[in-house]
Amino acid sequence: MSKETELKLLIAPEAHSQLLSDSLLNGTPCADQRTFQLQNTYYDTPDQRLHQARVALRIREKQGRFIQTLKTRGQSQNGLSQRGEWEWPLETDQLDTTLLNGVWPDTLADIDQSALKPVFTTDFQRTAFTLNWAGEHRACVELALDLGEIRAGRQREVISEVEIELISGSEAALQEIAGQLRLSVSLEPSDVSKAERGYMLINHQADV
């Protein structure tokens, strides 16, 4: 298991090009820029037991490769979140529940894992940078700029956000980097994950 620590920020879709031209992403500290498509399918029971337990289970397709991820209940404040995370490479896009043995939350022990089915998807382009930050607090981070959409049945919602994930170093550096980026574009902290937004779409669709 690893602990995921990241800062999530909302950005207007039309501001992406402005952010990409920021000197922070084009100077010496920046290396290894990558752009790729990410397609994610989230799984749950028909009565949304995982969602109720604040657990996310997904399969991600990235450049023809599949990764199964389990994220457990964490905490989030002012866009900064921390939670447990497990990842496994897959041969296909099919969920492998045997990989969950030993890490499945006790609060969900009574669930029949064969009842886990796809509930919504996310599809977005990610432009990612590795930054070695040397401010007051030093850190190595991955800065990701995401643009795409969440799909739940006929419902669609835009994804447009920046994620700054801590690789090593000081957690305080995440806010320093965000402060630097805000000199170029407007960024608002968000405590709502892509998975949570997907459930909002599902439940809104059920209510209309």
Automatic annotation (TrEMBL):
Lineage of the organism: Bacteria, Pseudomonadati, Pseudomonadota, Gammaproteobacteria, Oceanospirillales
Protein name per the record: CYTH domain-containing protein
Residue ranges of domain CYTH in the record: 2-205
Xref: InterPro entries: CYTH-like_dom_sf, CYTH_domain, YgiF
Origin species: Kistimonas scapharcae
Alphabetical list of CDD domains matching this protein: CYTH-like_Pase_CHAD (cd07756)
One Pfam match: CYTH
